[in-house]
Design brief:
Layout (H helix, E strand, L loop, with lengths): L6 E2 L1 E4 L3 H12 L4 E4 L7 H6 L4 E2 L8 E2 H12 L8 E3 L4 E7 L2 E6 L2 E5 L2 E3 L5 E4 L15 E2 L12 E5 L3 H11 L4 E5 L9 H9 L3 E3 L2 E8 L3 E7 L5 E6 L1 E4 L3 E4 L1 H5 L4 E2 L2 E3 L11 E3 L4 E2 L7 H19 L15
Parallel strand pairs: 1-9, 2-3, 2-10, 3-6, 10-23, 12-19, 13-14, 13-19, 14-15, 22-24
Antiparallel strand pairs: 4-5, 7-8, 8-9, 11-20, 16-17, 17-18, 21-22
Helix pairs in contact: 1-3, 1-7, 4-5
Keywords: FAD, Flavoprotein, NADP, Oxidoreductase
Cofactor: FAD
InterPro entries: FAD/NAD-bd_sf (IPR036188), FAD/NAD-binding_dom (IPR023753), Fd--NADP_Rdtase_type_2 (IPR022890), Ferredoxin-NADP_redctase_2 (IPR050097)
Length: 330
């Protein structure tokens, strides 16, 4: 049977952490599963943007680097070889149609057929919020960074981090023990991170530059930052080797609109089973909304069994649904 004729039980659109765990859990339920990922490799934004970042909302780990989490999830997906998912990377879904009980997914490489669909595309395509000042664009990835691919690149250097949220604080704490000196620049005296992280920040060696905004950048032997004090005409200069900007990202979930799925404020609206108003199409992770939704990897992991078990019951009602994880061992 050709790939275009093969009908999967489940097609997971999105190969980030939540999509990978969903595929693993579908394997535990012995469901024929396909994962379609638009990027060249699995891991989504964690692999692309945060391979070196410590992730702290995964049960069982006080902290785990993004790349290590993706490696662990990849290994987990192959625990049941007979039910390991088929993985299609570098392939983008452009349209979804339904004929009877079967969905057809039109992709950049052809057509895929599936009895159900799980959408786990996270926040969609992301772009960093950049500095709102003029600077030499050639400095990007040389002295000015929006992503960290390798923390070793900052070893022994003086680093300034701009931002006041969880990501900026996490990078400040991560680089504190690697860089020669770390400054954290924020426009307010208060930070918007987890209480435990903010407490560690105040107890550590990171020098807090608040309340300041970056008003200019000069590149010479060092990167000189012109810092303007908020609600004041006062300025301060800061000479560093590198600047890491963490002002957040702009997201675009245009794919959901293109697929003509039911949206609520640009997010996929789901019910208590993670199912949309279109029977057979489910959503997980940061691309969905429901009352009380929390946008954390841990929350997405918890949503996966809910969706998969509902799909399994609908596709194979004769099978007994597991009541708890240990039953899957028997």
């Amino acid at each position: 049977m050709s790939e275009s004729e093969h009908i999967y039980d489940i097609t997971v659109i999105g190969g980030g952490p939540v999509g990978m765990f969903t595929a693993f859990y579908a394997g535990m339920r012995q469901l024929d599963t396909l994962v379609v990922e638009s990027l060249p490799e699995l891991g989504g934004q964690v692999s692309t943007l945060y391979p070196e970042k410590m992730i702290r909302d995964v049960a069982g780990f006080a902290g785990i680097k993004g790349a290590q989490l993706i490696d662990a999830l990849h290994n987990q997906m192959t625990v049941f070889p007979d039910f390991a998912p088929t993985v299609a990377t570098n392939e983008e879904v452009t349209a979804i149609t339904k004929d009877g009980d079967t969905f057809t997914l039109t992709t950049t490489k052809g057509e895929r057929k599936s009895r159900s669909i799980v959408v786990a595309i996270g926040g969609g395509s992301f772009a960093p919020r950049k500095l709102a000042i003029d600077y030499d664009q050639a400095l990007e990835n040389q002295r000015i960074f929006y992503f960290v691919k390798n923390v070793a690149d900052f070893a022994g250097k003086t680093v300034a981090i701009a931002g006041g949220g969880d990501s900026a604080i996490d990078w400040a704490l991560t680089l504190e023990g690697i860089a020669k000196k770390v400054y954290l620049i924020h426009r307010r005296d208060q930070f918007r991170g987890l209480e435990s992280s903010v407490e560690r920040l105040h107890q550590g060696s990171v020098e807090l530059m608040t309340p300041y905004l970056i008003d200019g950048i000069a590149d010479d032997a060092e990167l000189t930052l012109d810092l303007k004090r908020v609600k004041s005409e006062a300025h301060a200069n800061l000479a560093v080797d590198a600047l890491l900007v963490n002002y957040g990202f702009t997201a675009d979930n245009h794919a959901l609109r293109n697929w003509k799925l039911p949206l609520d404020h640009r997010l996929l609206k789901v019910d208590e089973n993670m199912e949309t108003s279109i029977p057979g199409i489910y959503g997980l992770g940061d691309c969905i909304t429901y009352p009380g939704k929390v946008k954390l990897i841990a929350a997405g992991f918890g949503e996966a069994p809910t969706a998969i078990n509902d799909i399994a019951v609908n596709l194979y009602p004769e099978r007994r649904q597991p009541l708890h994880s240990t039953q899957l061992e028997h």
